[in-house]
Please model this.
Amino acid sequence: MKLKGLVWFFAIALILISIWELSYTFVVRSYEAKVKTQAERIVKSQYPEVTGEDKNALVKTRMRRILDSTKEKSIYPIVGTSYQKCKENELNLGLDLQGGMSVTMEVSLEGLLKSVSNNSKDAGLVKALQTATAQNIAIVNGKAVPKARLDALAQQVAKSGRPVTPEVQQQFRLHCFVSYCFHPTKPR
Model:
């Protein structure tokens, strides 16, 4: 318990530093809110007939003008820091905090089964996974592209007397991918 005072000191110091850093964000946000109100008043008085998206665009333009013209104005009441310096010290929000980020995660069924089985080396499990993956050449839009479709195309070409080269097989594979991408509900 000898270090209890030191722990309290660092905790209080960390809290004060955090508040100081957040204060720039608060000052900038409140100043920008005032400028936005001022810009809306100006747009409303100069363009009373404008509404909707046009009004929003005019307000943004006017707000940008006002902020550019007052960037050297002292807005931080305690230390007298300018808007530009406060904006530089403001905390930057990531896309996730601004509501502009979307993440889609796709899970491999084979990988999931392996991880659930603790990467088991059981011969039966490994053989079952190999058999299951060998039956499909890919997964497109969540649908398995069966290897049987690729084999059927190769057989049709072989029956016509043309050779089935690796380049032709690659074209078959591309054809299957494209057909499953653009027509995922049609039967193959």
